[in-house]
Design goal:
Length: 230
């Protein structure tokens, strides 16, 4: 089973001019393409529970739902403030001897409120007494983009438990492939004199709910400083 990124539903060709002028690149993890189209988003961080665009709204003194289900408002904001997005994972590939069990796992743990801890678990694991094998395919377009673009800054929303303040990516093992890929991104930034910001906040509803008002304020300040301020 292959789970593609939700961007297979998005028409991004008209956004190439934004990419060429991007000042800040925002890296996320993965947005799964759900077979139920009503469960998919219109763009990165597009779910109405996510706080990324809500934070932009709060910083700009706009109604919190200003960007919800409104791609044009998102595009207008990206044009004005020169930022864009990539997720570091392109697709998830699963193998299991029982398709019904695999479908159950994916529906319960990927299509429904998955966490990055679940996403980055790739060693074979047992689910309902069946072994599940998983492979992550990373988005090497990020490297190509950084090598050719005029981007000045890269930030990420994976949180500092995933990429810490010393820019060490966890988990470290090469079996996952995550640390080598992130290291390649950071090295490309160094070669191009692009700032890779070590501080990170996740805009997920889970992170904001757990962190409370102080976390939300820190998220808003972080987005304002790294995306909206000149």
């Amino acid at each position: 089973m292959v789970i593609q990124h939700a961007l297979v539903n998005w028409n991004l060709e008209n956004l190439n001019p934004i990419l060429k002028k991007t000042k800040t690149l925002v890296l996320g993890s993965f947005n799964p393409n759900n077979p139920n189209p009503n469960e998919n988003t219109d763009f990165y961080y597009g779910r109405n529970t996510n706080h990324f665009w809500k934070s932009i709204s709060r910083n700009l003194n706009l109604p919190e739902n200003h960007f919800t289900n409104n791609l044009q408002n998102k595009i207008d904001c990206m044009v004005e403030y020169k930022f864009f997005f990539f997720d570091i994972i392109n697709s998830l590939h699963y193998i299991c001897n029982n398709n019904a069990v695999l479908n159950q796992y994916v529906n319960e743990h990927i299509f429904t409120n998955y966490t990055d801890n679940e996403l980055f678990r790739v060693r074979p694991f047992n689910f309902n007494n069946y072994l599940v094998h998983k492979t992550l395919y990373y988005n090497h377009q990020i490297i190509e983009f950084l090598e050719k673009s005029q981007t000045k800054r890269v930030i990420h929303t994976l949180g500092n438990s995933r990429i810490n303040q010393n820019l060490i990516a966890n988990p470290l093992n090469n079996y996952l492939g995550f640390n080598p890929f992130i290291s390649q991104i950071i090295q490309t930034c160094n070669n191009k004199q692009i700032e890779f910001v070590p501080e990170s906040y996740s805009p997920s509803q889970i992170a904001v709910n757990l962190g409370g008002q102080m976390y939300r304020d820190n998220l808003d300040n972080w987005i304002n400083q790294n995306i909206l301020e000149e």
